[in-house]
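Re: the request from the purification team.
They wanted to know what the chain is likely to look like in 3D before they choose a buffer screen. I agreed to run a prediction and write the result into the notebook, where they can find it.
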Amino acid sequence: MNNGWQFPSGFKTMNDIKFISHDKHVLKHFPIVPAKDCLPKWYAKLKANEPNISKCMPVRDMITAGYIIPNPTEQVVGLLTEDDIQNPDVVYPVEIAGKFFTSLNYMTAPNAFHTHDQCPVKIDGAKKSYYKIKLPWKIITPKGYSTLFLQPFYEFQKDFVMMPAIIDTDLYDHSNLIFPCYFNKDVDLAPGQPLVQCIPFKRDEWKHSLSHQEEEKSSKMNLFLHNMYKRAFHQKKTFK
């Protein structure tokens, strides 16, 4: 029963998520993919028959949750310090009508940045300005579903940090995704590099409670010698 509400055009089930790009080059060469198909290189090399973190199901669920948005355009970011504030200096290639030029374009437009005073905190002792990375994607989820956006944690990227956010992608009308980030050193963002992990979820209202309970001495986990969480509690999650 759905109280008369029907799926939007193009949706087959409540759990369909649509990724739409206005850039055919990005759609062909740098598509959004399920996170399970874009594992961190170090994680993918782990051997399943040896004791390692690949056997930790909560970590595996995090690494494989949702989808990965890769970087579609090489961008070179340097740090300039002015008035004790670190400002990113961005250079990227110029492409017009499918033709590549050897000249480079400097990102100087004010709307490409958030100034330090918009988020006036010191990060590792430095005042930062925040560069806004624009990705040519529109994401549509069914009614009642939002999307969590965050930097793939297990890539262990410290040179730059994407700032996480939640967007109500069932309602938000947009043509591009904008992600503020800050840099800790000069960085060359490579095409195809995993930038953002997006995880759709259903919005619910929650009410919390607090209570005390003695530690339990028995558990289903006590029945197993190996892979206890996986065998006793884990539930499969699917993103296609």
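For the purification team: The chain has a mean pLDDT of 84.
Please add any questions underneath this entry.
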